DUF2079 domain-containing protein
Amino acid sequence: MSNFKSYLKNHWIKMVLWFMIVSYILYFSIFTILRSQNLYAHYFDLGIMHQTLYNTFEAIKTGDYSRFLEMTNPHGIEQMKRMAIHNDPILAFLAIFYFIYSGPETLLVIQSIVLGIGAFAVFSIVEEVLKKNQKKNIMGLFFAFSYLMYTPMQRANIYEFHAVTLATTFLLFMYYFWLKKKNWLCLIFLCFSLLTKEQVGLSTLFFGIYIYYIETKKRIVQFKTIQFNLFPIIIIGISVVWFVVSMLIIIPLARGGNHFALSYYSDFGNSPSSIFLGILKHPGSLKKYIFHIDTVRYFLFLLGPLGFLSLLSPFLFVITLPQFAINLLSNSWNMRNIIFHYTSVIQPFVYISAIYGTKKVLDYFSRFKKKRYLFYLFVICLFVICLLFSYFKGPLPFSREADLYPLKKTNEAKSEIIEWSNRLKNPDLKISSTGSLAPYFTSRRYYYHFPSGYERADFVVVKKDELYNYFDSSIDIMGVYKRLIKDTHFTIIYNSKLVVVYKKI
């Protein structure tokens, strides 16, 4: 009878867990698709990613492998490989899903599904870490709920598509399978994680060091002979090779020079080695980046939703150090913002360390007679904190900073853009358009983000209000548009209050 009750209880818990996961996937899939279709998405980076996958899909379908991971230079006119910007070859695997549907919506749904399933990994890690605690299922459900409500992850999910956002879930499963001593599965998810971006290898390097320390320490405590531990060495080796080969061989060969993002660290040097040495030689220069109010906000919104429990497991939290350094030492302040995808590699270890922090708290409560009441008070406090952060910074309908425009407001230009995307559906046409129209026009080999390279396009489609609020103030988009107006190689074939279309004569 007790086994039957236990089965029913576990069955109910799993049903609640998967209800939460499916709800998350449905909401964010629908939301991000509507966001794109209502012209709230952009060329950076949904259009870029979609063009890369579309070309890869066409390469697989037609056998023209010159198109494999190919895209048009976002700031130029030439065709280039995706590795010239980031080494995220997992995009090639995702292109297989374009055989089901070859539009940017496929990427948005995949991203929501993968991130949503991360809640199952979180739940499983809690069950394993707290396996001796009778309340492990309650804590598992709370952490899964908190993960799905976690503002930085939701914001990353909303903000276009980036391969590295998938690393959040891959890294969680990597850690879980290490806990379960399923090393082959751990290595598979390690590799999936690495394939999402070049710098992920730095975080997995620290993970390898961590598990080497833990396993060596365990043998010392158990008075066993310390033996050469191969598995963490393999992880460390793979991680180092991935990062070094990406930064010093693959990206420079594809780009014809150093990684573009090295300019974000120009205060320290202009190459990976000179930046590293510059930081060591001038540690005082770190002050203006680290000791800043934005850094305080950054840590607050990353750690606050879990009540700063991650800090109770500091050695595990150190795995986040490489990505924190990449974000905090950059002269691009966007990298310290939870709106974008730059927290994706940090998030898994914020949760894993918080789970271990929770174990320490629950072990401490076990000393008291009223430990049951302390437990429920602890869970209620965490639940309230989670909801407060979601209310103040989250994008959901009940939040103070709710992102509802894609749900409530249809962009006036949408019907015109749909009509023109159908007219210009021929993938052999070369199209130039302003940024928010890119998801509609990047299903082709050649696409030029206006104002770059419009001269090469067969058609130029401009959403007029984007001429006045261009994201990069260093580019004179209005000046280029005035040049287009006078360009005798183009003629206007459509002109409304919102949209203008030029055709090359």
